[in-house]
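Bumping with the actual sequence this time:
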Amino acid sequence: MKLQILGKGCAKCVALGEHAAEAAQALGLDYELEKVTDLNTIIDAGVMTTPALAVNGEVKSAGRVLSVEEIKRLLSD
């Protein structure tokens, strides 16, 4: 599973990355975490507000830091 954190690397982006990793580990998933900081790539993904979380290339959330539990629910679907 590929998890992507889209954002410029601000504190919220870092927190979302930590939450995503914690959620994936709690579910026992085999995952790769990628941080996407290139503005053009972020815009091409359709993201206008960061931080954003994409799972396997599909943006699941933008503009807020999801909790670990929220991410676990997203990854379980």
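The tokens above came from a reply further down the thread. The longest helix spans residues 11-26.
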